Every structure is written in C-alpha cells, then in structure tokens.
Amino acid sequence: GESVGLHLPxxxxxEGDNSxxxxxxxxxxxxxxxxxxxxxxxxxxxxxxxxxxxxxxQGQRVTVLLNKxxxxxxxxxxxxxPGDSAVYFCAETPFSGYALNFGKGTSLLVTP
Amino acid sequence: DAMVIQNPRYQVTQFGKPVTxxxxxxxxxxxxxxxxxxxxxxxxLLFHYYDKDFNNEADTPDNFQSRRPNTSFCFLxxxxxxxxxxxxxxCATSRELAGGYNEQFFGPGTRxxxx
Lengths: 112, 115
What we know:
The complex is a heterodimer. Chain A is mainly β. Chain A has strands at residues 10-14, 19-24, 30-38, 45-51, 56-58, 62-67, 72-77, 86-94, 101-102, 106-111.
C-alpha cells in the first residue's frame, strides 16, 4: 500500500479570524510564486500568484506577501470560513524554468 | 467550462500489472504535466510535454512512461506497478513553460491502489 507520509504542519483557526500561512524557499533565482489550495481527494486549485518584482498582491479575501530578502512567502486569508479548510501549498519556479517546486504544505483547519 | 479531466478517478491494479491513467484538457495549453503525490506530501513532478517534446525528470523511474497523441490528451503508463507506486496521480497543464505563463491548472487526480 501507500507509504506513510509526513505529518503536515497544522494551523487551526476559528471561523471569522484571519489566517496566515507561511512558506520559506531557498532558491535565489525563484521568480514566480503560487499558492495552491488542495481539498481532500481533489487536485490543487490555484489561489493567487506573485512575481518577484512585487512584494504584495491582493485577491478576494487573500493576500500574498513576498520578502525576497529572507526568502519568505506568506498567504493571508481574511475572515476565514469553514470552506477554507484544506491543505495549502506554496510553489515557486525560476523565470527560465518550468518545474514548480512545491513546499511541504500546511493543513488549515477552521473551527466554528 | 474549460478544464482538466482525469479518468478514472480511482484505479485499482495488481502488483506488476500494467496500468494506464488518462488526462484530457480543453484549455488548448501547450504543456501537460504528470505529478505523483503520496499521502501528506507535496506533488512531485514526473515529466512534462511541451507540445510533442517529452521531458523526463532525472529521478523518475523507468517504470513510468507517458504518451501525448495530440494536444488534448496525455497518458501515464506504469509498466509494472509496485506497492510503492500507490499514490494520487495529478495531471496539470499550463499555457507556456516559464515565468508568469507557468500557472498550472490541475485535474482532480486519479487515486491508484496497488494490491
């Protein structure tokens, strides 16, 4: 059968609170960053992306912050809802590359 | 709606019995990818096609092959599945390869069980 995977870091928040999910990367050549949401039994779903020439980008209820100095990426979800419960992956790729390098993932659990 | 479709959603095969997973897309994207995702892990890229050009990741086992007969379809062939190949297999597409055109759209995945 399937090998046992690592336990994912888990973030538990109450409904209505804001959530912050963090991601560190190591490649200085990383140019393009994406956050994906993956619900149980489904494929990853695009949430928001950011290029390296920006440090902040906002979407609907979500904000991505990029700090290239410390190679850190974060995803902020405002007014977290039960439907936001999922595993969140950050991914990056260099400008000239193609392969998305995924981070380990964080499991977000929203409690009522 | 334009999308990435994977069939079947669940596949059971026997140890050593060849199996094929399929992916189709209506996005007319140039690039199609196959990822393997094991429990509680991040997706791992196996290979991709840029149009008809096949690119294998260095650590992808020879047991895994792929075919892309046309723009819309891509197949993953596992020649002799082992117990360690049980995983979710994700197909993804992107318009181009690099930079901001690399937003990848994922299918729902096929969960492979090996008995």
